[in-house]
Amino acid sequence: VGYIQHGGDEEVLTLFHQMQQERVKPDQTTFIGLLKACANTAALEQGKKIHAYIIKYGFDSALFVGNMLVYMYANCGDIEHARQVFDKMCKRDKVSWDVMAAGYAQYGQYEQIIKLFWQMQQDIVKPGQFTFVNVLKACANLASLGQGKQIHAQIIASGFELDVFVGSALINMYAKCDSINDARQVFDQMPKGDVVLWTAMITGYAQHGHGDKALILFRQMLLDDMKPCQATFVSILKACASVAFLEQGKQVHAHIIKSGLESDAVVGSTLIYMYAKCGSMKHACQVFERMAKQDLVSWNAMVAGHAQHGHSEEVLKLIQKMQHEGVQLDHITFTCILSACSHAGLVDKGRHYFGSMNRDYGIAPAAEHYVCMVDLLGRAGHLDEAENLIKRMPFHPSVIVWGALLGACRIHSDVELAKHTAECVFELDPLNTAMFVLLSNIY
What we know:
Elements: H1 2-5, H2 9-21, H3 28-40, H4 44-56, H5 63-75, H6 79-88, H7 94-106, H8 110-122, H9 129-142, H10 145-158, H11 164-176, H12 180-189, H13 195-207, H14 211-223, H15 230-242, H16 246-259, H17 265-277, H18 281-290, H19 296-308, H20 312-324, H21 331-344, H22 347-361, H23 367-379, H24 383-391, H25 399-412, H26 415-428, H27 433-442
């Protein structure tokens, strides 16, 4: 237990082997500790061996051991074994269901979480706060409004409608399901004493392009003497960015300085993003220079800002600085680089960086990188090369990548290639009106 509390997971496993050698019989607490150590270190094979010992010593029917086995398998990436253990448990409590649901959430198996919730209802197990939060997140990720409303009814029946975390999850679910009025209704019915609720509602507004409403709510929050947290500032800055409210963004920045969060890496990067979106790269640069630590996210925010404003030279200078300072470029960085090269017509630079992704950084180009390259080559008149690049893509080309080539055909009046490209587009999306308009412009 001492080793586990201080992060000594490897030592726990070594100690167990010593116990075996000295023939000391383990008990339930020993196995719970061992399984936790395996989960923390993702030691699946060790966990399976411990599972065998649990069966040998007759602890496989113990409730707490069963719960920890489910947790261990899920944490080690073996969700099928986790479910097998769960299904074989002779007794399950609320924790058992929550651990299984959390395992599914970890791997994005949201449909399974909802199925599990209704199965839990059939087994007459009373759901708790964590259960509702998990299943509402699943509904949000699936944009399943109907299921979400049914679960909302269960929440009211269970008396959890005023719980701050359940309420925040409800607001998030309704917002993600494009039902922002329902989200606001939940918010209005809740006690307003927790920053989590305010942040959830502001985030909902920000994510759905209601930047003005997010700002009104933010001001109300300040009037009610609520102290914004990191997540609140990130959401309200994104709201300002979405509607290009520069002056309001500056006012939020002043509150951030007052709160002592300007040096926070996430807030700093979002400030850069906001200023760039609002057209003030000068302020974005000032925030970047003042940051105590410039991580990859903040570098990417700067690169994206300059790329967005067509400052291709600044983008390439920043990339050189990143390389000089040993900052590892990622797929987002390369999207920004290729976009900047495309807008500036830097074909050779674009080819160099596109080839460098896999060769120097081990990053396989994704769909967005191919779109940028097709756009770059197409704009520059290298239509055959752009078409060949699409044909060599390791996955099925999307409407967007064919659309980039069709746009290039329009620029260079290549009717024959446009006809072939349009056929590929309409094969994927027969009702794409934007492509019909683009094709008619070529003729």
